[in-house]
DNA sequence: ACAGATATGCTCACCATGAGTATAAGCCAT
DNA sequence: ATGGCTTATACTCATGGTGAGCATATCTGT
């Protein structure tokens, strides 16, 4: 941390480097799903994530953010977790150039009409078109991304390392696509100068930049959030935060598919949900599905604590 | 966790919105394992985690912390990840009462002689004696914790809710013990006033406080770190960061047991490690094991990228 | 009535996992 | 050297979760 290694023994003190004021800002990745499209709440015409200063008036980060989001959406927030704290030394508040630390949060909710006019839901695949594989791998990957990454790989560093990184991230050369590597993919494209945010620093590369840009590193934060939801959805029943109180199993499946960007095997998905007893029937059916009416279900809230019991991956001996 | 707002003891700030300076501090949970005992690096006689101010000179949090830790341990740091950012409104720097935000990191390394004399490794179960179940559930749980939590449950709030919380956290009433609930257990004991840190605020409860205390909320941060390692060890080959370059399978097993605080089924553990091809034989054997000499293994670094391929939990359709 | 769509139920093979047993190869005390 | 102790290593067997696919039910619209 410092030259001697002893500085850390003391709590941050007055000595040494004059402390430049540090701005602490909160950034929210607020996600919802509507009609098979995953959405993120944005401001400034879709170019920024909602953010605010971490002022003294907030009792805690969490509750302050929750209150703010609930004012914005007019809907109580189901799920809120801390995402990551971004604090690279070159992060600056655009307005005054102060050093900025951004503490980001991930929030899940149902889509609701927005109370404030500045904010708007945007499909998150506008920002990451290469992340939606529900209709197969997007043509853009083979047509634009792979060739440009190949050119980047040969242009510096260790080409074989770069090629492998690209192949792992994007599932090239017969490797499987891993939907969780959202951040790695974004950072790779950034490094390769293929997205607009990177070109502010690097010289222009060929071709058009990929996906819709955002200010600062907001898109990177969004990538972090998407990666987190995609990972969490697998071992934690957070999907239900995105669902209305009653829903059909296909709606639930479509929601999972929207988030993960992948297609799910219908019979096995139903079996999984049912055998894990995540839901219970409401007794109602929903008729306007285009086919046979579907039973509707609700989330079994009791699962949350039962889940306590679940899930070892270590081969234990019985006590 | 923090029951009451203590806006009172805030130094008289310029009124209202005026931004009070916020101290940003880094805290490290640096873990190692030696001789079947998991260790954490501490300072101040084991009463604090190493911490330091986040100054302007640092390129980024991560690299600054890495450099500092490597000077302390004289060993390159294998693994470093951000843990959590603590920023409740009543967190204060002890010396000057400034508002403090602490960004905590988890680092894994092999135990090494320390370069600096102020720092020392401590067994982490000194701070959380109830977390070590390798010799069965600690007697302390049934003898002290359960009865005191039972008394607490009846003393306020909704007793049935409190009882269930306690039972889930500590595996009471026939519920299974979940080794990952380190933080929930600590926070429960804190709320119940059974640990020293809580008694600074609450009135004294009966009996002795549980486990060795730390300053501020360092023990809570340590709990967060332990929970993270215990979770991560299951789906990510981070254990190897705690191991020497060559090791026997039993040593590896003991390391996992030390971290998780649980006993592992030996044949199945070996099968798991081998079939996942996490390791490869070195060709050497180790004789001083007290029995038949054991083959030694090394971690297959190639796994890290192969792991890219691994692990879906969603029932996908084939593309 | 029939086509088309979705809902729902069921089968079957395979493999990871939990649990336990058996044999091999060192060391040490007698 | 021998027998007993300790650890290493290999195998078995039942069970249950998972991947993949098929079959039947019940709507709407023509």
Automatic annotation (TrEMBL), chains A, B:
InterPro entries: NMN_biosyn, NUDIX_hydrolase-like_dom_sf, WH-like_DNA-bd_sf, WH_DNA-bd_sf, WHD_NrtR. Pfam families: WHD_NrtR. It comes from the Bacteria. Residues 239-299 form the NrtR DNA-binding winged helix domain. This is NrtR DNA-binding winged helix domain-containing protein. It comes from Roseiarcus fermentans.
């Amino acid at each position: 941390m410092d030259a001697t290694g002893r500085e850390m023994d003391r709590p941050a003190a007055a000595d040494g480097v004059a402390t430049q004021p540090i701005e602490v800002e909160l950034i929210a990745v607020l996600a919802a799903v509507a009609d098979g499209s995953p959405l993120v709440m944005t401001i400034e015409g879709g170019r920024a994530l909602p953010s605010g200063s971490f002022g003294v008036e907030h009792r805690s980060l969490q509750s302050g953010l929750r209150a703010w989001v609930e004012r914005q959406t007019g809907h109580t927030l189901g799920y809120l977790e801390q995402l990551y704290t971004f604090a690279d030394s070159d992060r600056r508040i655009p307005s005054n150039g102060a050093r900025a630390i951004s503490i980001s949060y991930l929030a899940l909710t149902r889509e609701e009409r927005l109370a404030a006019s500045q904010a708007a839901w945007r499909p998150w695949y506008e920002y990451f078109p290469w992340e939606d594989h529900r209709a197969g791998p997007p043509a853009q990957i083979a047509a634009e991304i792979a060739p440009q990454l190949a050119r980047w790989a040969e242009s510096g560093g260790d080409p074989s390392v770069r090629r492998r990184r690209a192949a792992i991230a994007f599932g090239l050369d017969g490797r499987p696509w891993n939907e969780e590597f959202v951040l790695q993919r974004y950072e790779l494209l950034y490094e390769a100068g293929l997205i607009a945010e990177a070109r502010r620093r690097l010289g222009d590369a060929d071709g058009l930049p990929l996906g819709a840009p955002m200010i600062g590193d907001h898109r990177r934060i969004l990538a972090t959030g998407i990666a987190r939801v995609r990972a969490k959805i697998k071992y934690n029943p957070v999907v239900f935060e995105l669902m209305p109180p009653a829903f059909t199993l296909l709606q639930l499946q479509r929601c999972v598919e929207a988030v993960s960007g992948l297609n799910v095997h219908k019979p096995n998905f139903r079996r999984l949900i049912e055998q894990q007893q995540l839901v219970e029937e409401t007794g109602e059916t929903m008729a306007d599905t285009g086919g046979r009416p579907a039973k509707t279900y609700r989330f079994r809230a009791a699962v949350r604590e039962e889940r306590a019991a679940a899930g070892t991956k270590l081969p234990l001996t019985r006590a």
